[in-house]
Amino acid sequence: MDPKKLFIDDRMKGVCAYCGGVPNSRDHVPSKVLLDEPYPDNLPVAESCTSCNQGFSAAEEYLACLIECVTHGTTIPHDGFRPKIAATLKARPSLASKIESGKQVDGNGNLIWQPEGERVSEVVLKLARGHIANELGIQRIENPEFIDIFPLAAMSEDQLEMFFSLPSSHLYPEIGSRAFVNVCSGKPSAFENWLVVQENRYQYAIGQSEGDWVKMVINDYLACHVAWD
């Protein structure tokens, strides 16, 4: 088997990973807004239509800026901010204001951030669909069984252990897929294994035990788990 060639069913090719339409572009998974320059070599990509490729940009920018503001406790950029995010917040005061409007202080003086949940879920689901398409050569455009999103700092030890422990199906991934080729050739793979795209920025894992699933950690802050039956 040629390790550089995929052998997935032709019926699984030529489909937008996000809507099932005809693709005319390719989308990085994860999106570059979630990473720092210099970008890693050979970033995963998924086939997409132009509408989907461009349509998620605002939500992805919002999530990247939200996480940076939450982890630093302010929407006012300073030297500790990622340069890309600091530049975005300075150039987009309306975005900073939107994030600021979700900031509250509880009775104990602790900061509480109320994100726009639908936008966050939109990005997380988009990333999960992109990883499934890239790694397994299949499209999961239907609604998932669940989407779980939690800040790592808010999770208990048991929750953290459950999240980072990956189930094993003791089976090979989808025959002919990128994950299958990588597993068979001994290359680094995200199949039932955490694959670090960029240290401290993004890692993910996929699997097919009891359905297709994707787990992601964004910016060492947000734990995400998406699964389909």
Q: Reading side by side through the largest sheet, how are the strands ordered?
A: 5-9-8-7-6
- Share of residues in strands: 15-25%
Q: Helical percent range?
A: 25-40%
Shape: globular
Q: Compute the number of strand runs.
A: 9
Overall average residue pLDDT: 92
Major β-sheet profile: 5 strands, antiparallel
- Secondary structure class reads alpha+beta
Extract low-pLDDT stretches. 1-11
Taking Cα atoms only, what radius of gyration do you get, to the nearest Å? 18 Å
Question: What is the element string, with H for helices and E for strands?
Answer: EEHHHHEEHEHHEEEE
The separation of the N and C termini measures 30 Å
Number of helices: 7
Please state the oligomeric state of the protein chains shown: single chain
